[in-house]
């Protein structure tokens, strides 16, 4: 007899349908029931889940914690993987533990360090991890000064929000005047300096941007799994150069990732990104959550989502070494089903689900086939 594990993913990326698939097809032959919530009724993660709810809009972080605690208690959640309002949620880890829910998320201290990129760069520099030169800017004059300094050293300048994820707000500065050339083809990341300066001068509030040189490929995202004891269980790099993707275990990427993951309490799944500054790898970004591309490690024979759930449940999977490195590949899009109608929040759900109902191991395949991906 094995107990069923109930896992909740809140407002997460569409790619995590593959995360959910890996949980169901876990090598432990454990039955997994997945609950998902989202603000978008057409998110494919809702269709891929066993149970789904629309999230209420406009909740403050504190109110969202109360909502999350209620979801966990009513749904009998064993492991909660928070993305939205992660920092507020991990500050209440003891409250979740009190109702039998483990948080698959890092420490509050780690989320505080890495939710602000300037704070993150200062912190990792103090432990010997290389970072690119950067300036924090809030006004048009500060932006121009930072750009001119980089250009004087022969660099192309770019900027991004000091807080943010997924490349949102990333732009590359160009001095070329706006012309029909910029209206041909697909929109790109380049933006004219004069247009940015004009927008900043007309804005009624300051921005909070980091300005730095545009870093070169390859980009290497190191997926890490770290235990609550601060010991790394897994580190595998995913390489990106143009359309080509691949894998690496090269220590020039894994060593600084280990220093960050173990030194800053990045418990469970994190993603640490590097690029090249000249001939030196430097930190690009740190994500205190599972990467959208984490499932690609299955090409190396690794099921990282399940290993993380095991850790959260207190079942240490040990050190995970990929049995092989998969061949280079490209990422292509494909169709995923969405729900035929909007999922309705269960206002009348008075029954609290019992945690971890016992089921026969033979029923795992049937449970995994409830909603095909």
Describe it:
The protein has 373 residues and is α/β, with parallel strands linked by helices. Helix content is 28%, strand content 24%. Strand 3, helix 2 and strand 4 form a beta-alpha-beta unit. Helix 1 crosses helix 11 (304-312) and helix 8 (140-152) runs antiparallel to helix 9 (193-202). It is globular.
- Percentage of residues in strands: 15-25%
Query: Could you spell the SSE succession in H and E letters?
Result: EEHEHEHEHHEHHEHEEEHEEEEHEEHEH
Largest sheet: 5 strands, parallel
**Helical fraction:** 25-40%
Termini, distance in Å? Answer: 27 Å
Weakly predicted, low-confidence segments: 344-373
Going across the major beta sheet, what is the strand order?
4-3-2-5-6
Secondary-structure class:
alpha/beta
DSSP strand tally? 17
Blueprint (SSEs and pairs):
Layout: E1 2-3, E2 5-9, H1 17-24, E3 32-38, H2 44-48, E4 51-54, H3 61-75, E5 79-81, H4 86-90, H5 93-98, E6 102-103, H6 108-114, H7 117-125, E7 135-137, H8 140-152, E8 157-161, E9 171-174, E10 190-192, H9 193-202, E11 209-213, E12 216-226, E13 232-241, E14 244-248, H10 251-263, E15 268-277, E16 280-287, H11 304-312, E17 358-359, H12 364-368
Parallel strand pairs: 2-3, 2-5, 3-4, 5-6, 9-10
Antiparallel strand pairs: 1-17, 7-11, 8-9, 8-11, 12-13, 12-15, 13-14, 15-16
Helix pairs in contact: 1-11, 8-9
């Amino acid at each position: 007899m094995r107990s069923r594990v109930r896992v909740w993913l809140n407002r997460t990326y569409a790619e995590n349908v593959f995360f959910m698939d890996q949980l169901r097809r876990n090598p432990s032959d454990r039955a997994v029931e997945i609950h998902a919530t989202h603000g978008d009724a057409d998110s494919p993660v809702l269709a891929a889940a066993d149970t789904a709810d629309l999230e209420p809009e406009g909740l403050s972080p504190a109110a969202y914690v109360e909502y999350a605690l209620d979801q966990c208690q009513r749904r009998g959640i064993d492991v909660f993987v928070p993305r939205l309002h992660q920092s507020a949620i991990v500050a209440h880890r003891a409250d979740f533990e009190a109702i039998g829910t483990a948080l698959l998320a890092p420490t509050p201290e780690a989320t505080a360090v890495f939710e602000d990129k300037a704070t993150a760069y200062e912190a990792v520099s103090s432990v010997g991890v290389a970072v690119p030169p950067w300036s924090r800017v809030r006004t048009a004059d500060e932006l121009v000064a930072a750009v001119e300094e980089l250009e004087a050293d022969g660099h192309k300048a770019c900027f991004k929000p000091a807080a943010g994820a997924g490349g949102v707000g990333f732009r590359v500065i160009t001095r070329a005047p706006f012309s029909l050339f910029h209206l041909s083809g697909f929109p790109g990341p380049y933006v004219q300096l004069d247009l940015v300066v004009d927008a900043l001068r007309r804005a009624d509030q300051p921005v909070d941007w980091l300005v730095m040189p545009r870093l070169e490929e390859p980009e290497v995202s190191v997926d890490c799994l770290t235990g609550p004891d601060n010991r790394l269980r897994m580190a595998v790099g995913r390489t990106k150069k143009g359309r080509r993707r691949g894998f690496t275990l090269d220590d020039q990427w894994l060593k600084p990732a280990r220093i960050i993951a173990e030194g800053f309490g990045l418990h469970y799944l994190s993603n640490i990104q590097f690029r090249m500054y000249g001939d030196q790898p430097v930190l690009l970004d740190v994500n205190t959550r599972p990467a959208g591309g984490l499932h690609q490690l299955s090409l190396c024979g690794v099921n990282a989502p399940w290993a993380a759930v095991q850790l959260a449940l207190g079942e240490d999977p040990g050190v995970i070494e990929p049995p092989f490195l998969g061949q280079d590949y490209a990422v292509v899009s494909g169709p995923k089903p969405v729900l035929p109608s909007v999922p309705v929040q269960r206002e009348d759900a008075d029954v609290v689900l019992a945690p971890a109902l016992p089921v026969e191991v033979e029923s795992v395949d049937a449970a995994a086939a409830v909603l095909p991906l």
